[in-house]
Amino acid sequence: MPFELTYNRRAIALTALLTVAPWVxxxxxxGRIVGTVLDAITGEPIxxxxxxxxxxxxxxxSDLKGQFVIDSVPPGLLKVTxxxxxxxxxTTAYYTVLPDSATTVSFKLAPITVLLPPVEVIGxxxxxxxSMVGATLLTRTQLPKNGSIIEALQGAVPGLQTHGRGEYARxxxxxxxxxxxxxxxxxxxxxxxxxYIDAADVDCVEVRRGYRAANEIRPSFVGETYSGVxxxxxxxxxxxxxxxxxxx
Length: 248
Prior knowledge:
single chain; alpha+beta; five-stranded mixed β-sheet; four-stranded mixed β-sheet
């Protein structure tokens, strides 16, 4: 009888172990990150973009369709950085990678505006990046040292409201149902702003209110109205700035 009891206990333990083992193996299985990289202005795919999981050696490169896959990624919270020549690099907010699953992370990269050598032009001189009356200008001394620049504006700019979170977040002004337009270093980006901009990398931000402000940035929007414009100048940008926005 004692032998039979011991044998039964061992059988039960072995059965339990075999039941739990697949779950443990699955929980430790790596995941992968998939996505697409597009030009924020044209919407065209960007090839040869380097994608890197922050703080690790896991990386990949986008193909001709702008698509990429990063394999064997350890499960957990992580950020992904996208960078290539001619575009501003982007680091995402935290994403959760699950075991043996694919996490989708997509990018819209803003092109870097490069100043060309001066050319003499005869005609009316345009004023670059004029500041509007009633606009709110915040410089790097008034901005937090880290965190999302969009989140930093909440509460700092009267009338600016944020709806949603992460890459689905949108901003509006004065209770309007219309989103705001974004201008990053001179590049016009329609909402939502799907990439992360750290406040530590920003020299200044100007928020201009009303449809007129958006119309001055780009005169013709077919079927679109915007409640204002958020203009952001990052460190090292050579694009014209409004008076009061210090150089890097």
